[in-house]
Structure formats: C-alpha cells, structure tokens
Amino acid sequence: MPFIAEVKNRWPALFSETEFTRITMVPLLSTFMAKLDHYADHLLRVFKKKGGTAKHSINLIMAAMDGNPSVDVRRECILKAVCVYLNEKPDDLFKEFLDVDLGASRETEQPTLGVYVVRHEGANSADTPKNIGVIIEGCTVLQALGDHLKYTFEFLQKVLMELDGNNLSMKVQVLKNKLLE
Fold first, then answer.
1. What is the spatial distance between Cα 179 and Cα 150, in angstroms, rounded to a whole number?
2. Is residue 80 a contact partner of residue 90, using CB atoms and an 8 Å limit?
C-alpha cells in the first residue's frame, strides 16, 4: 500500500477539492457540511441525554457556542462532541496551533490522521480560525478548508456521508439509531 505522500505526488488532483469534484462529481466538502448541518439538532438532542463524565465533557465543549453562535463554531463543537460521545478524545482529532509557531508545531507532531486548526496569536477557541486542514501520515492533504478515532471517522463516513452505511460497528449503530428516533 503506497504512503499518502507518494499518492499525493503521483495523483495531486485527488488532493485539490475542485479537481476532485470535477473527476468524481461529488462535492465532498459541501456534502459533508450539509449532512453535518442536517444532523446537528438531532445530535444535540442525543448529547443532552448522555450521562456521566461524557455529559460533563460535552457540556464544556458546547459552551464555546455560547460565546460565538457562528455555524463554524457549532460544527466544530458538534464534531468534538461526537468524539466524546463515542468515547474517543477530540484532542486526537483536532490539533490547534498559533500562526506564529505553526512550522515548529507541525514538524514535531505528525499524526497518522488529524485535523489541524491554526489560530492567530491571542485568539480564543470561539474566534474564526486562520486555517483548517487535514493531515494524513504527517502529510497535509487538505488545507484552507475555511471556516485513533475509529468510531468518529466511521460515523463521519458511514452516517453523515452515507458511504457503506449498512455495515456499522455497534457503537456507531447505536448513535445512528438514536439520531433516527
């Protein structure tokens, strides 16, 4: 199996959102955002029913929406809460960097798969990020997206994007059932 850097070098068009959409006829980013927005209220309802430490963690994450009601903050909070709901750590998915130390931070932290968020120095989590991107095997595969997570990515792929949605793990199936109640 080729490393992601080799795939990116051989087929760079696959890593350009506009070229990917032209080739596949699937607007991934807009489809993903539309599905996330579609399920947002259902997910918030499911999160409110969660108990224990997960409920506390989810409430802390959702508090960011009180300071900034933008759709971007809402989406970020919901994605982080999905991680917590599925007993995974949102910090393993989202890595935040300040724009002043971006190069040093990205060189020392090479996640297998993750989302990075770059904020201006002095900004807080409710402020609009400077950049958002996806890293696979230490290689930035998507960037400037605008404003060990097996179950979170399974949920994103199979429930939100409806790709192979009939073959779900028990955890993700339970969440999907709760969304459809």
1. 19
2. yes
Of 129, 121, 122, 158, the C-alpha closest to 146 is 129
133, 116 in Cβ contact below 8 A?
yes
pLDDT in tens, 150-163: 788 778 878 887 77
| 127 dihedral zone (left: phi>0; alpha: psi -120 to 50; beta) | beta
Residue keyed to tokens 């960011």: 64
Report the distance separating Cα 164 and Cα 180, nearest Å.
Answer: 17
pLDDT in tens, 7-25: 778 888 777 778 777 877 7
Q: Which stretches does DSSP call E strand in 31-172?
A: 94-98, 113-119, 131-136, 139-142
**Whole-prediction pTM:** 0.70
DSSP type of residue 180: T
Positions of E strands within the chain: 94-98, 113-119, 131-136, 139-142
Residues 6+ away with beta carbon under 8 Å from 107: none
Cβ contact 132:115 at 8 Å: yes
54: left (phi over 0), alpha (psi -120 to 50) or beta: alpha
